[in-house]
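Hey, I'm writing a tutorial for new members on how sequence and structure tokens pair up, and I'd like a real worked example in the thread rather than a made-up one. If someone can provide the structure for the chain below, I'll link this post from the tutorial.
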Amino acid sequence: MITSIYPVLMTADVAASARYFVDVFGFESVFDSDWCVSLRRDAWELALLDAEHTTIPAGYRTPAAGVLLNIEVEDADSEYRRLSARDDTELALDIRSEEFGQRHFIVVAPGGVLVDVIQPIPYTGAFADQPS
């Protein structure tokens, strides 16, 4: 029986990555060491692990790359205004609405991990016939 599933992002700078998700998205640390930080916000968890740590098998000790972490929100426009006002926000994709049911924008977290901030919206255009 599965009791939990959550992403673990391997990073070169655990502290900077943890600070980012705490400061920007309101996560709280539930475990904190120099090589691993476990974060929680409500029912959601995210862990950050030193990519060079010995618990990672040799040959796989590289920071996360090509990762897109989705965070769904109630109001993407409000989150966009809030994050755009921060000096430390690196915007990779400006806010826009997609026919496939998302209003979203993408920011860059430490280490180059992309965070897609998404508000589900009704399908339109070619996707209008999709079930809700």
